[in-house]
Design goal:
There is one protein chain. This protein has 413 residues and is α+β, with helices and mostly antiparallel strands. Among the domains are: 137 residues, Adenine-n6-DNA-methyltransferase TaqI, Chain A, domain 2 (Alpha-Beta Complex), CATH 3.90.220.20; 149 residues, Alpha-Beta Complex (Adenine-n6-DNA-methyltransferase TaqI, Chain A, domain 2). Helices cover 37% and strands 21% of the residues. Strand 5 and strand 6 form a beta hairpin. Helix 5 runs antiparallel to helix 11.
Length: 413
């Protein structure tokens, strides 16, 4: 069915009138405004439980919590400072800062706030939205027009708006439900993964020997070189920068994200196949000592603020051990620094690792944990992809339902 045919069926002969926001405000249908100045000091001085919305990068634009509130009713809020997005605020006690605009429907028996939310979100998404150049950017250009179906028959108009809202809300609800289900599934699999990982690395003295990682019978830690991001090239010898270990790599890797020149590599400290590359610096305790087993065939350069562990164990076995609470508990005793957290190579060498007496046990443990790692990685990558597909589906139907034929005099981008 064509877009026009779908709308024709929905409108059932009803006319559509495009009304500028200024006219809607002048007629008393809506009221437009801007939030108040609320600083972080205000939040600290007047603590409370009422949310304050701003241009925050969080999903709901929440800036913090406050002991006062501006509104307790249904409104739309928005700000371009955080990338541009409309938010529907259901009735609750809240405030918005001065970088935000707000809109309140004064006659809900004629105009649906949710209808406005969906329409203005669509307008923003297609980049036809605009602001007055004379006022603060959070103030909507009042000559921007909104399509109102049969405004002379408020009851029918509201019914049409309501049907549009019902369909579009159903897609957002399905997306929210799917997101919740997949998130719960991912959390359950991670808990299961963590449980089995801890169990698999728990041995009795009869089952394993316990060595310091730096024991000469196992291996040694070698500090990385002077590699910095400015040394990256488009191709050449592979390299791992310490910051990439906790932002890009998983448990193991066969290829690198970055490269350095052949000439630079000659003077670099390089890890070989099977070595563990470890970030020895981070801004938080969780990321410090995050490690990746290098399984590529070529030697790679390793940056400073990282080290690599050259050893005779199964590379994945050691990498999975670094993820256990058994390792984390020992690591915490060696962390130094305040804003920047560090664990040096000498301290890492003191951490005790269990080495199974049965030579095949390392491979058995790795095979089990590889399956869990693959499953959780798949779920982690699939979640945002699935959400994106549902968002595309919502946007398709939103455009289908809100593509009213525009009159020539309608405001254009």
């Amino acid at each position: 069915m064509s877009e026009l045919g779908f709308l024709d069926k929905l409108l059932d002969g009803a006319e559509v009138e495009w009304l500028p926001l200024g006219d809607l405000e002048d007629s008393g249908l809506v009221k437009l405004g801007r939030g108040n100045v609320i600083s972080k000091n205000d939040l600290a001085n007047v603590p409370g439980d009422f949310p304050v919305y701003s241009s925050s990068a969080s999903s709901q634009g929440e800036f913090g919590r406050y002991g006062k509130f501006m509104f307790d009713d249904e409104r739309l809020t928005w700000s371009i400072d955080g990338g541009g997005r409309f938010f529907y605020r259901k009735p609750h006690r809240y405030s918005v800062t001065n970088v935000c605009g707000w809109m309140r429907v004064l006659q809900p028996e004629k105009l649906s706030t949710r209808y406005l939310y969906h329409y203005l979100s669509a307008a923003w998404a297609t980049k036809v939205f605009d602001y007055t150049k004379k006022a603060h950017p959070s103030v909507i250009r009042k000559e921007y027009s909104i399509p109102i179906p049969c405004p002379e028959e408020p009851e029918k108009s509201l019914a049409i708006q309501g049907e549009i809202v019902r369909i579009l809300d159903s897609f957002t609800e399905l997306t929210a439900e799917l997101t919740a289900e997949l998130t719960a599934e991912l959390a359950a699999r991670k808990r299961q993964y963590n449980y089995y990982r801890e169990s698999l690395f728990t041995f009795t003295p009869d089952e394993a020997n316990f060595f310091a990682l730096g024991d000469e019978r196992l291996g040694e830690f070698i500090r990385g070189g002077g590699l910095q991001k400015k040394d990256f090239t488009g191709h050449g010898v592979g390299c791992i920068h310490y910051g990439q270990i906790y932002t890009h790599y998983g448990t193991y890797a066969h290829s690198t994200k970055s490269f350095v020149s052949q000439e630079f590599a000659k003077k670099s400290r390089k890890a070989k196949k099977g070595d563990l590359v470890i970030a020895t610096t981070s801004e938080n305790d969780d990321d410090v000592c995050k490690a990746v087993a290098w399984l590529g065939d070529e030697d790679i350069a390793v940056s400073s603020d990282a080290c690599f562990y050259s050893h005779n164990l199964n590379p994945k076995y050691v990498a999975y051990f670094f993820q256990t609470e058994q390792f984390q508990k020992q690591k915490r005793a060696f962390i130094t620094g305040t804003k920047v957290r560090r664990v040096n190579a000498d301290s890492l060498a003191k951490i005790i690792i269990p080495v199974p007496r049965n030579e095949d046990e390392q491979e058995r443990i790795v095979a089990i944990l590889d399956k869990f790692d693959t499953l959780t990685t798949s779920l982690s990558e699939g979640l945002p992809r699935e959400i994106a597909l549902r968002q595309q589906q919502y946007e398709f139907y939103r455009d289908l339902l809100l593509s009213f034929p525009q009159p020539a005099e309608a405001v254009e981008a």
